[in-house]
Amino acid sequence: TIGILMGLILQVVLAAVATGGQAIAGSMGLSMAQMIDPNLGNVPVVASFLVILASLIFLGLGGHVLLLELLIQSFEMLPIGQGLLSLNAVGALLGWSSMIFLGAVLLALPMLVILLAVNLGLGVVVRAAPTLNIFAVGFPAMILVGMLMLYVLMGAIGGRMQWLWSAAFAQVRTVLGLG
Q1: Cβ neighbours of residue 58 closer than 8 Å, sequence gap 6 or more
Q2: Coil, strand or helix at 44
């Protein structure tokens, strides 16, 4: 039960990353390019890339070692045969589920703002030159700017992912009563 609880809390981080990646891919126009992920189902390529990046950050932070450490500490704090969770822990777990949306917004917001500005600029250009085909110009421009900005903002996105993983480990400690 403790392992399931820890996995559920950490799965929220991956769901937040996948949701943020879906929002970015939808704004870039890449939501049709999908991959089948056994854990998440059909997700856009950008979301799959971000989930792989989040997994690498998890390993880079030593998350696998921290999980084993938390599991060993849970046997000391919650011996076998003792009551597992209090109502406060269940409430904290339910409150943590809102991190899916908060994390997704924090990951995707810089990209969404930039892509919205590009969309507004394309709208002005198409309004000024009505014979210009928006699909012939707008789609490649959105993908080009989106890929460029994804490259530029990768440091900030990685920092947000690191923050999400740190918050998830703190939440595991809180729910299990370890700290």
Answers
A1: 64, 165
A2: strand
Q: Tell me if 71 sits within 8 A of 6, measured CB to CB.
A: yes
Helix axes 134-152, 99-128, angle to 10 degrees: 140
Q: How many CB atoms lie within 10 A of CB 49?
A: 17
pLDDT, tens digit, for every residue of 116-147? 999 899 888 888 887 777 777 888 888 899 99
pLDDT, one tens digit per residue, over 3-60 is 888 888 899 999 999 999 999 998 888 877 766 666 666 778 888 899 999 999 999 9
- b/e burial code for range 145-169 (CB count within 10 A of at least 16 → b): bbeebbeebeeebbebbeebbebbb
pLDDT higher than threshold 80 for residue 179: no
Residue 1 DSSP symbol? -
Please give the model's pTM, rounded to 2 decimal places. Answer: 0.85
Rg (alpha carbons) of the chain, rounded to whole number: 20
What letter represents residue 52's amino acid?
A: I
Q: How far is CA 17 from the centre of its chain?
A: 1
